[in-house]
Amino acid sequence: MKDTHVARETQQIKLLEDRLKKITRIVRSKKLSKDFEPSLKTLSRILKIMLDSGPDAKTSLSLGANLNYARLAKHIIWLEKKGFVKSTVEDSKINVGLSEKGRIFTSMILE
User: Fold this and answer.
1) Residues 6+ apart with CB under 8 A from 11
2) Handedness of CA 12, 17, 22, 24 (dihedral sign)
3) What angle, rounded to 10 degrees, do the helices at 40-53 and 100-109 form?
4) In Å, what is the CA distance from 7 to each residue of 2, 12, 90?
5) Residues 6 or more apart from 101 whose CB is under 8 A from it?
6) Other Cβ atoms within 10 Å of 106 Cβ, number
7) How far is Cα 74 from Cα 59, in angstroms, rounded to an integer?
8) Inter-residue contact 72 to 46 (CB < 8 Å)
9) How wide is the angle at C-alpha 94 spanned by C-alphas 82 and 47, nearest 5°?
10) pLDDT in tens, the chain (111 residues)
11) Three-state SS across the chain?
């Protein structure tokens, strides 16, 4: 019984390591799969948080929007590629905030 538990735990750790590597690769390369289509509901949650609180770290955004970090990162990268958000470095952390184009886009989505 104990061997089964250890094997299952090892398998779960391996899955988590694989997911973490994938998330890290997405964030570092800022590349999305060609078939990625952002969710309008998710975009509106992210953009509302940015509009209300201003530029913030991705971790804070994921908590505020109630999204896991990987999902948030994909949507942030999509928003960056469209020019709706921009990243800035402040106090050795990366903050993401709305661009002027992003403010216009946000006002249209949140109406």
Assistant:
1) none
2) positive
3) 120
4) 9, 9, 43
5) 83, 84
6) 20
7) 13
8) yes
9) 45
10) 667 878 888 888 888 888 777 766 766 666 677 778 888 999 999 999 999 998 998 889 999 999 998 889 889 999 998 999 998 887 778 889 999 999 999 998 888
11) CHHHHHHHHHHHHHHHHHHHHHHHHHHHHCCCCCCCCCCHHHHHHHHHHHHHHCCEEHHHHHHHCCCCHHHHHHHHHHHHHHCCEEEEEECCEEEEEECHHHHHHHHHHCC
Q: Is the pTM of this model over 0.85?
A: no
Give the list of residues 6+ apart from residue 60 with CB closer than 8 angstroms, or none: 53
